[in-house]
């Protein structure tokens, strides 16, 4: 983390965040601070609680303990659309595109909260409507270019290959004008070539838009290459936090992923 980041206010901060479903504590005492422009990884074994954290940070679940803040503003109690309007956008493990809409239309759909023209202008196609539609179309094409889908603007989402659908979902999230982008397993199901392209695109997005990125990913090679810091959770509890090098050599992380050595268990 840079010295500037150390003294700045976090763009996204979770303090003692937790959630309980009945008698099960899915996540507890989760603390994290992400600074502007940082790219941070959140990893852990299957069922560790990673997506549950994302669901709390995006208003899908309401935390039963703790708080989280965006740019210093407390976000507890906000609904998903309010969280998006505030500046947190996400993608999902399972692709959730509008399959029958074109790539450009999918991206434009995420810009509705920024539209200024009213119902009257839209119904009667006044000058303000056409001017704003032209501007929105231009922004959509820019975002598609950013994720290397510039030549697919008029292709319906259902006719795009799987890897391109993943990138389209990222472009749609970017269209909200967010401050923090949450990526939930963006490389899931991709082949090595598609994963390498995705890695380059995530780097480009962060550098060009100067946004913060929180990434959940099971592809450890991608996480280690792209993330500046990594936080590891297991059974809903943070077990390690540090640089990729520190995480790779952490015994608790190795144990969480691979289990204890039989001889070690016998010794215990």
UniProtKB/TrEMBL annotation:
CDD domains: ABC_Mj1267_LivG_branched. Residues 12-260 form the ABC transporter domain. It holds the Pfam family BCA_ABC_TP_C. GO terms for molecular function: ATP binding; ATP hydrolysis activity; L-isoleucine transmembrane transporter activity; L-phenylalanine transmembrane transporter activity; L-valine transmembrane transporter activity. The keyword Transport applies. It comes from the Bacteria. PROSITE patterns: ABC_TRANSPORTER_2. This is ABC transporter ATP-binding protein. GO terms for cellular component: plasma membrane.
């Amino acid at each position: 983390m840079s010295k500037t980041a150390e003294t700045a206010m976090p763009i996204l901060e979770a303090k003692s965040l937790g959630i309980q479903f009945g008698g099960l504590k899915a996540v507890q005492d989760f603390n994290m601070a992400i600074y502007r422009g940082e790219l941070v990884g959140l990893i852990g074994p299957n069922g560790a609680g990673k997506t549950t954290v994302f669901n709390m940070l995006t208003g899908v679940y309401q935390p039963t303990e703790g708080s989280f803040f965006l740019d210093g503003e407390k976000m507890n109690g906000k609904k998903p659309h309010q969280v998006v309007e505030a500046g947190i956008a996400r993608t999902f493990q399972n692709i959730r595109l509008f399959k029958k809409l074109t790539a450009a239309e999918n991206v434009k759909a995420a810009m509705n909260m920024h539209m200024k023209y009213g119902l009257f202008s839209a119904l009667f196609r006044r000058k303000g409507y056409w001017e704003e539609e032209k501007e929105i179309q231009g922004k959509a094409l820019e975002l598609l270019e950013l994720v290397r889908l510039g030549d697919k603007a008029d292709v319906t989402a259902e006719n795009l290959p799987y890897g391109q659908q993943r990138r389209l979902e990222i472009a749609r999230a970017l269209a909200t004008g967010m401050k923090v982008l949450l990526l939930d397993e963006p490389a899931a199901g991709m082949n090595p070539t598609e994963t390498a392209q995705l890695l380059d695109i995530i780097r480009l997005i962060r550098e060009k838009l100067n946004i913060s990125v929180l990434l959940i990913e099971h592809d450890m090679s991608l996480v280690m290459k792209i993330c500046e810091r990594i936080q590891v959770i297991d059974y809903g509890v943070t077990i390690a936090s540090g640089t990729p090098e520190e995480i790779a050599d952490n015994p608790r992380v190795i144990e969480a992923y691979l289990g204890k050595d039989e001889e070690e268990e016998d010794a215990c």
